[in-house]
Amino acid sequence: MKINSKIIITGLILTVFAAIFPVAAEVSFSSYAGGLAGGNWVVNDDSGTDFSIPFKGYAGGQISLGNIAILRGELSIKSKDLTSNDIFKGQDSTLRINELSLTYNKLNEVVTNYFSLFAGNCEGVGSDSSMTRIFGIQKTASHILDTSSGLYGRGLFYYEGVGGSYMAKLHSAPLAGGFSLYFNNEKNDYELKKANLDLRLMCALDLLTIDLAAGAGVPLVNRDKKYEGAFLVIDTVYIHGGASMLLGQNNENSFLVHFGMSDMKPHPDMNGHDFSNDIFSLIVEPRVVIGKTHVRLSFFSLNKNDVDELDYVYDNFGGCLSIYTDSLKSKTSNATLGVNLICSVKDMALLDFVELYQKGETGTIKPNAYVTPFTKIPVFGGEVNLIASFGIIDFMGKFKPDVKASIGYKKTF
């Protein structure tokens, strides 16, 4: 009988947690949940209209055993259309475990050591999860990476699979580094047919915040029959990594870059590589603060998996001018009010644009335009998120309207 590897790592994490639990001097529990639902109305190519009610949400929590260990878990659910009958058959909705992890903390005079076991998509670069957990800083990620599929924004690179990691944070400086060893598949499933080793470096200075990750993956399955019976044959290496850099302070004039690359396979002769839009994501974002008004101009090239999770961006390639203020007074705390002006292209990315530009064929691009006002209001200890999007699909061609409206709520208990 074949035992699912997810069950193995889950059992290991829970077993280690149960062993640590009796020696904890203090136990605390916190949880959080959120979701976003709305209506989409768009004119299709047959001059008809399509209406749907998509939904995505998440729930999670953590158990802290004093300063010894933290057990974290998070799951998400997503449906393309709540009005579809297929949702009751499981054909139009997905339930996913985002993260299950156990972190053991060990302090000495020089560093704080973090030993972790994890399963799922963990410690995303660009999602703020690692930076806020280790350094306790404010979130610095781009506003366009906001998602209702998890507590943090969508990262452009994750450790996907099952494995372990080690991180060390210096006491004398805002610097941390470590490595991760984890297993997944070339298709990012849980058959554990690829071993990965990644290095991680993070720093949080006053005017510079950096999160870097880089590594390589090696298939554990021999695909060449002439090597049958060999103990170890490395015929393919996948390179991956991510980077997030903020130059300046988060609430002042600054410059942000996010980058992510999933498995890229160099050619054996090292004279080329299989580099495509499917494995590459990039965000470049200059930020200006005028009084209490924030102005951010984001240029993005995202793969399809990233776009499917986002709240404000619907296409792969384009730009977003975001103007907002987070200083509106409410009864308990400040509210946020703003607007996104987006021009973007579906099913296109940076490399496609460069190729069309070199050929002089940029006139064939079919851009979409969106005006998206939004507000975030504190309510009952949580936050209500209201989004309305008024779009024009192919505004230089067929000119089709696309209207979206959604309401969401997030709360930490």
Architecture overview:
By secondary structure, the protein is mainly beta. Helices cover 9% and strands 55% of the residues. The protein has four helices and 20 strands. It has helices spanning 5-20, 129-135, 304-307, 350-359, and strands at residues 27-43, 49-52, 55-65, 69-79, 93-107, 111-125, 157-170, 175-184, 194-204, 208-219, 238-247, 254-266, 273-274, 280-290, 293-301, 317-329, 334-345, 368-379, 382-393, 400-412. The chain has an 18-stranded antiparallel barrel. A hairpin with a 4-residue loop joins strand 7 and strand 8 (175-184). The longest helix is centred in the N-terminal third of the chain and has 16 residues, at 5-20. It is globular. The mean pLDDT is 80.
Distance between the termini: 41 Å
Number of helices: 4
**Approximately how much beta-strand content do the residues carry?**
over 45%
Q: For the residues shown, what is the average pLDDT?
A: 80
Structural class: mainly beta
The share of residues in helices is under 10%
Query: What is the CA-atom radius of gyration, in angstroms?
Result: 23 Å
Elements, N to C (H/E)? HEEEEEEHEEEEEEEEEHEEHEEE
Q: What is this structure's SSE topology?
A:
Elements: H1 5-20, E1 27-43, E2 49-52, E3 55-65, E4 69-79, E5 93-107, E6 111-125, H2 129-135, E7 157-170, E8 175-184, E9 194-204, E10 208-219, E11 238-247, E12 254-266, E13 273-274, E14 280-290, E15 293-301, H3 304-307, E16 317-329, E17 334-345, H4 350-359, E18 368-379, E19 382-393, E20 400-412
Antiparallel strand pairs: 1-2, 1-3, 1-20, 3-4, 4-5, 5-6, 6-7, 7-8, 8-9, 9-10, 10-11, 11-12, 12-13, 12-14, 14-15, 15-16, 16-17, 17-18, 18-19, 19-20
